[in-house]
Specification:
mainly alpha; F1FO ATP Synthase
Length: about 70
């Protein structure tokens, strides 16, 4: 039990990475909805850009979780 604080810190770090990504993806979706409401004819291009950006943000979250698991093991 000497390293229980390190384990908690690793879990918190991985959790914060995922929470940050979730907030970012939510903001991306909100911005895409607002942009589509303003210019409905650009909906297809906005959707593609939203998906690409969300995938990049999700990749960062995945790296955060992987680093958390590597630190734990």
């Amino acid at each position: 039990m000497p390293n229980w604080g390190a384990g908690i810190g690793k879990g918190i770090a991985a959790g914060l990475a995922v929470i940050g990504a979730g907030i970012g993806i939510g903001r991306i979706g909100a911005g895409a909805c607002e942009a589509t409401a303003r210019q409905p004819e650009m909906g297809g291009r906005i959707f593609v850009n939203m998906i690409l950006t969300a995938a990049l943000v999700e990749g960062v979250a995945l790296f955060g979780v992987v680093v958390g698991f590597l630190m734990a093991g």
